[in-house]
Design goal:
Elements: H1 2-7, H2 9-14, E1 47-50, H3 55-69, E2 73-76, E3 108-109, E4 112-113, H4 114-126, E5 130-135, E6 148-149, E7 155-156, H5 190-195, H6 209-224, E8 229-232, H7 240-248, E9 261-264, E10 282-284, H8 286-297, E11 318-320, H9 327-330, H10 340-351, E12 356-361, H11 405-416, E13 422-428, E14 432-437, E15 441-446, E16 452-457, E17 463-466, E18 473-477, E19 480-485, E20 489-494, E21 510-516, E22 524-529, E23 543-545, E24 554-560, E25 566-572, E26 578-580, E27 586-587, E28 592-594
Parallel strand pairs: 1-2, 1-12, 2-5, 5-8, 8-9, 9-10, 10-11, 11-12, 21-28
Antiparallel strand pairs: 3-4, 6-7, 13-14, 14-15, 15-20, 16-19, 17-18, 18-19, 21-24, 22-23, 22-25, 25-26, 25-27
Helix pairs in contact: 3-4, 6-7, 8-10, 10-11
Bound molecules: ligand LAG and calcium ion (CA).
Calcium ion is lined by residues 138, 194-195, 203, 237-238.
């Protein structure tokens, strides 16, 4: 039973065993002894999974947002003809219809037509964004009492799919599903896992030349349309040799050039390890997912900085994520529902050089696992059931995690620091950590409920920088960064992200404040004021100034202070107590001030 639960995420669901738990075998974290790893990612490697978005909406998003924000790819939901399941009375049409192919026709799904699909691929390519198709090639449909109709109008029954390409040229029938027609029961038996039925889904005989030829035709037709890569569904249920033959037969991608990027969905375990598929592409690293999701959920993140091989996989072998469309339903350690902590984890994934990141973008399913995407109901003459509505990030129905300020800002950060190593720069307890990315970036993460007054060395050149992970910014001066990292927030500075006209964006221009203040040992000086960057009059959250042995009692730092911004200097003691500057509030920027004198 335990093996079955670890063996397939979906398996746990059909068995009704509830949520998966983190296995006892989670990779232990080694202490940070190794020299900083060289980053594996190229620029613009971030992929967003626009789960269930229709083709027109993906195209618009590539042009309006993803290209400009620096995303490199979109994983789209499966484009092949799917079953149509009016699930419950009144109709539900669950999202998982898509994972039951009826044919390889791209002609019509709930997400649009083949023409819409091709337009999307072209528009995204024009904006530098690669389309990754979720390729369902291990199986066809589950059982059905009578003959049914697929989304593109093809009549089918289980094991009989009469028209794979819409031109009468190819079909699958009973013998194409040999040798096993039963559900996988023993998840410790590799032969069974690869040959028998996952979730009662008719399992293709991928060893047969006829079956392989249809799969490679489907994938190569997508490549000919300009599709740049694949997320292969349920890879571990396809024997390695069969997978190798299929991947070998793929054409080069027109436009982008070279072989398609392939990543395999492998829920690695002892029976079928992740590494079985690394010869054929990258693999989805669920060990990473468990580590980062539980680490951030528990505020225990310092062990995540140095993470050379989650699940025994190298950075180059791994596709990483905080959640995906399955885990957000069946194993929801950390998802959009959790708010700040979730976005913080996503920001960390993007800041860190390990793996190729996939950002999840969801619709709000309100805890109903089967709930399909927001839709416009049935459309006359369209056999695809409920038709997906256009995505709208300003509506609460579409969550659009990828548009979150911290997430999209960190995509820029990631591109700016591409190819650099990681050097840890600060740690505070187990919930706060900061690191450099070469000399190109500095990022700090605070997975706690209190603001973090950070002082750390950095290799980032001196200057004023915007915060890529949220409002405000910080100054690097004399190779030191001093800043307030908000509760459950991040600070990320990068070359190319220097402050422009209205740095900080939060109460006015960023100005350097130099203050003469005598303090007791251990006290800090904060600029505290009315804006959120200045702590909203909360001394601990104000902008911290720094001093040094040769500069004391001069303190300096930068803060966004507009002409009307009211503020004061405050000495903050280690126990949190505050000693306010006497007199009236200061108003507006001031370059050089002395405690109490104005
Ligand atoms: C995957 N990766 O390997 C997908 O990420 C995952 O979302 C797919 O399951 C699974 N493998 C098969 O492609 C999803 C749903 C299942 C659904 C299945 C087929 O999580 O719940 O199964 O798609 O539509 C459904 C019913 C099952 C039933 C099956 C066949 O839930 O109870 O046995 O259909 O009728
Ligand atoms: Ca199989």
């Amino acid at each position: 039973m335990r093996t079955a639960r670890l063996g397939a995420l979906a398996g746990a669901v059909v068995l009704g065993t509830g949520l998966l738990t983190v296995p006892a075998s989670a990779t232990p974290q080694e202490p940070a002894q190794a020299p900083p790893a060289v980053a594996q990612e190229g620029a613009a490697d971030t992929i967003v999974h626009l789960f269930q978005w229709n083709w027109d909406s993906v195209a618009a998003e590539c042009a309006d947002f993803l290209g400009p924000a620096g995303y490199g790819g979109v994983q789209v939901s499966p484009p092949q003809e799917h079953v149509v399941v009016p699930f419950s009375e009144g109709g539900n049409y669950p999202w998982w219809q898509d994972y039951q192919p009826v044919s390889y026709q791209v002609d019509n799904t709930r997400r649009g037509t083949a023409e819409d699909f091709e337009d999307m691929v072209a528009t995204c390519a024009d904006n530098g964004v690669r389309i990754y198709v979720d390729a369902v090639i291990n199986h066809m449909t589950g059982p059905q009492e009578e003959t049914s109709t697929g989304s593109a109008g093809t009549e089918w029954e289980q094991y009989e799919y009469p028209d794979l390409f819409g031109d009468g040229s190819a079909a699958y029938s009973y013998e194409d599903f040999a040798p096993c027609y039963d559900t996988i029961e023993n998840w410790d038996d590799k032969w069974e896992v690869q040959n028998c039925q996952l979730l009662d889904l008719a399992d293709l005989d991928t060893g047969s030349p006829h079956v392989r030829a249809q799969i490679t035709r489907y994938l190569n037709e997508l490549i000919a349309m300009g599709v740049g890569g694949f997320r292969v569904d349920a890879s571990k249920h396809i024997a390695e040799d069969d997978m190798g033959a299929i991947i070998d037969a793929l054409d080069e991608v027109p436009g982008f050039g070279g072989a398609p990027h392939v990543y395999h969905e492998v829920y690695g375990d002892q029976t079928v390890p992740y590494t079985a598929y690394t010869p054929y592409g990258q693999v989805t690293n669920f060990d990473y997912k468990r580590d980062i999701a539980s680490g951030f959920a528990n505020g225990d993140i310092t062990g995540l900085t140095d993470m050379p091989d989650h699940g025994g996989l190298t950075s180059a072998e791994s596709v990483v994520f905080v959640d995906n469309h399955d885990t957000q339903r069946y194993e929801p350690t950390l998802t959009y529902v959790d708010g700040d902590r979730y976005y913080l984890a996503t920001a960390f994934m993007l800041a860190h050089p390990y793996g190729t990141p996939v950002v999840m973008s969801s619709y709000d399913f309100q805890g109903n696992d089967t709930e399909g995407p927001p839709n416009i109901g049935e459309v006359d003459g369209n056999p695809a059931g409920w038709i997906t509505e256009d995505s709208d990030c300003s509506s609460s129905d579409w969550v659009c995690e990828h548009r979150d300020e911290a997430v999209s800002g960190m995509v820029s950060f990631r591109n700016a620091v591409s190819g650099t190593g990681l050097t840890e720069r600060a740690q505070d307890g187990s919930s706060r950590v900061a690191f450099d990315r070469g000399e190109s970036g500095f990022a700090a993460f605070n997975a706690s409920g209190q603001a973090w007054q950070l002082n750390a060395p950095t290799s980032l050149p001196d200057g004023d920088y915007d915060n890529a992970a949220g409002p405000g910014g910080a100054t690097v001066s004399g190779g030191q960064v001093s800043a307030t990292v908000p509760a459950d927030g991040a600070l990320a500075l990068h070359v190319g992200g220097e402050c422009g006209q209205d740095c900080g964006g939060n109460g006015g221009d960023r100005v350097t404040v130099t203050a003469t203040v005598h303090t007791y040992f251990g006290q800090e000086v904060h600029v505290v004021g009315s804006t959120s960057e200045l702590g909203s009059w909360n001394p601990a959250d104000g902008a911290a100034l720094t001093t040094g042995a040769d500069t004391y009692p001069q303190w300096s730092g930068s803060a966004a202070i507009g002409p009307d911004t009211e503020w004061k200097l405050v000495k903050v003691s280690p126990d949190g107590s505050a000693d306010w500057e006497p007199g009236a509030n200061r108003v507006g920027p001031a370059a050089s001030v002395t405690w109490g004198q104005r």
